[in-house]
Write a structure and sequence with these properties.
Oligomer: single chain
Shape: globular
CATH class: Alpha Beta
Strand order of the largest sheet: 6-7-8-9-10
Number of domains: 1
Distance between the termini: 42 Å
Number of strands: 10
CATH topology: TIM Barrel
Structural class: alpha/beta
CATH architecture: Alpha-Beta Barrel
Radius of gyration: 20 Å
Order of helices and strands: HHEEEHHHEHEHEHEHHEHHHEHEHH
Strand content: 5-15%
Length: 363
Amino acid sequence: MGNRRDFLKTVAGATTGMLITGRAFAESALQGDAAAPVKRREVSIGGKRVKVVDVHAHCVIPEVWDLVKDTSLAASAGGRARGPNLMGPDRIRAIDQLGIDVQVLSINGYWFYAADRDLAAKIIKLHDEKLAEWCSAHADRYVALSSVALQFPDLAAEQLEYAIKKLGARGAAIGGHVLGEDISLPKYDPFWAKAQELGVVVFMHPQGAENVVMKDAFKGRGDLGNVIGNPLETTVFLTRMMVNGTFDRFPGLKICAAHGGGYLPSYLGRTEIACEVRPNADCTNKKQPSDYLKSQVLVDTIVISEEGLRHLAAEVGTSQVVFGTDMPFNWHSNVDLILNAPFLSDAQKEAILGGTLVKMLRL
């Protein structure tokens, strides 16, 4: 298996097609252009105006380039600093068009897991403070999640507490592993303990399952590293958090898993049976996997189809499903999937579109 830096360099090149450096591009993005404003869509259910909250939205902080331009992380950091990933007037127009009232921002990519402790501390401080600036300037439209340097669990715990208490962050965003290492291991408990103590959600977003597949396994047509790899990484992460007892050690921990929780809700019965009847499974969980899904795990709505949403809600419960778009990436995830779902009550639609997150994120 290739190292994470090589993998992210490949992903960055394939998905961005350009390399932006320095402060100039960031400044131009914040200044925006003279594009005409769009009419803001307001979402109503049963004649009642409801607040729509998007839990899954990415951005980058291009100023980080100045911290890493002379390091081995330069290619990974710079390659992601492109137009749609930058915060500016275009992003506000986009959420206006989609009927999103509040967007929850997370940094796109966890390339900084390869940084040493000193550099990681500087990167996360910059990320979190720049996100806080944007959210403060648009307090009615945006909140942020702290990046945290999870490769140093004690530092990640400190960073999370600082971001929550001093910068107004509403939780943390993490990958599904740290340089291939399973983050349900006890060494990561200081971070999980802090998230539980603070009562904040941890948003888990994958990076192509390079911790699971062989090098170049997804090479070729179809963007399989994203289409298959991302849900696969999420599936492995959630399952290990269950069977390794992490959810039992931290019963107050709340995880929001991207892309509908991966494949786990679609094949849940196999996981539950394995823990019951296969001795070599060696599961340590005290409850059924479905119990964790229905209590400690939230999943976003990026399952695209009506039937996918129906099945997801049936397996995890509508109380655990929250709205997400994956902005700025176009997955056709929008409010109409929920609004038009015949199997959801008005109350359930309102909860999914924003009600659950309004309470959880203290909006």
